[in-house]
Design brief:
Elements: H1 6-9, H2 30-45, H3 47-52, H4 67-85, H5 94-112, H6 129-139, H7 145-156, H8 158-174, H9 181-196, H10 215-248, H11 264-276, H12 282-306, H13 313-321, H14 331-348, E1 361-365, H15 368-371, E2 377-380, E3 390-394, H16 407-414, H17 419-427, H18 433-437, H19 441-457, H20 464-488, H21 494-504, H22 509-521, H23 528-547, H24 553-561, H25 568-586
Parallel strand pairs: 1-3
Antiparallel strand pairs: 2-3
Helix pairs in contact: 2-4, 2-5, 4-5, 5-11, 7-10, 8-10, 9-10, 12-20, 14-16, 16-19, 16-20, 19-20, 19-23, 20-21, 21-22, 23-25
Amino acid sequence: MRTTTMLLILTLVVACRSTPVRPNTPSGGAVEAVAHDYWEEDLRHDPLWASAVGDHRYDDRLPDLAPAEHERHLAALRALAARAQGIETSELDGESATTVRVLLTSIATQVATEVCHRELWSIDQLGGPQEALGEMSTDNPARAQSDVDHLAARYRTSGNLIDAHIANLRAGLSLGLVAARINVERVVKQLDGLVATPAEQSTFVDQALPAAWTSEQKKAARETLAAAVRETVLPTLTRYRDFLTTDLLPRARAQPGVAGLANGTACYQALIVYHTGSTLTPEQIHALGLEELGSIEKEMATLAHAAGGPDDIRSFAHALAARTDQYVKSESALLEANRALLARAQARLPRVFGRLPKRPIEVKAIESFRAGDAPAAYYYGAPDDGSRPAYYYVNTLHYERRPLFNAAALAFHESVPGHHLQIAIAQDLALPDFRRQEGQTAFVEGWALYAERLADDLGLYQTPAERFGMLNFQAWRACRLVVDTGLHALGWSREETVTFLRMHTALPDQEIQNEVDRYIADPAQALAYKLGQREILRLRAEAKGALGDRFDLRAFHDRLLEHGAVPMQVATKTMETWIAAEAAIAR
């Protein structure tokens, strides 16, 4: 899993070049060699991803979306899988054998999603090319003039990116493959805002420049970027908007789920396996979600009663939402409140973690051009080059409508002990690069959801309102099992999905609308949170049962996280092996 949906809807490549030796490049041995080559293929395939992780060899390049390149990349993945399959794992140490299993699982699940042909129809307000172009100023930090030149070069080739994307979408239309209408409408609205903003004031030019530069240097840099944006990016995005409005929107899917596509059933099942590793059917996951939701809502009712509020959880939630002390009075106040939550959590980490993240994290507001479609918050990892910290992005749009009782669980999910702790630890492990930087959605998001509950163990929720917010978020993730399968397998409408979330969560309505449209754009991703959390909790219970008084939560966490964000089936195998070894010592 990566942080951008671009990898799912675009096929990316750059021309091969000789690879310099880097500190994290494995060397020697068949496992190290195939892991290294897989990572290099990944970076060449996606130069935007390379920049995001701090590898700047391809900073002047954008993806090649041609169908021929798509096929070349698939062939490269299959060749790498064949090499990995030829390695005799019985002769390897545990970590090397794990690398082979992770590599084979990653490639197999990626290739299996080809049944979806997403490059021919996916339109995404959170991970489409318009979002990728807007993020590039963050991923191309200016340390020298060459960095500004590289970013300008990317902007000047943006026409090739968008035109190839349009050609793929036209091919999809000819096959009856097209995005859901709501996603197209959201992207058109984004594009309207982007093209209406003068180049000099746009997000594309909003790049941090070295403090040591003179005012003349900074002015020249911004003029270089603004010229590229004015001459290429804005006309390109205008062309994309016009295509979506004139050609694609009239033919967009009225049915939001992928079941509306000819290959929708097989596509959805492949995406379930890709994101979660689970072989459960959509119907089984739907039933599991309803069961989980019922259990969590009983907890919520108990808390509401103990807090002296209304007896039913809906009334309690409405009463909380009506309290003026649950809202801030400015964007800066919302950011400060989240900084305080981050500091609160960081102080408690040593109680249950022996290994702590070394990379810094900062709280940052989501940029205005994406805030209207973005979730309440998200995490953006720090690159290897140390050019910037990790970011806990907070959506400050309509800050006056974002209740603080949800803020604590959200902060602990996205920062620590959630995403930042797990991802930053993984990035600094002595593992092959692809294992340090990538991972299955179920592990990454399952861990972050587990972290919300773990924060309760650490006493991080200081009021009944914050604990209710945590349970509200647990219920929300259980709802995702219900509504995602409802949308993509059981024929639910967008309206049915919105209504279900209104009935079973205390999320603001704007967040509900954004969430539903996110699930429509990215089928099965939302299933990973609760399915991953359930497996982590099961492993913890198994370890506690096997080890009894010898169970050490700090040791459990350190063992689970020391392998990176491996597929859940691999995590299960490695942890059960560790539990058995620890139990044998106890005997």
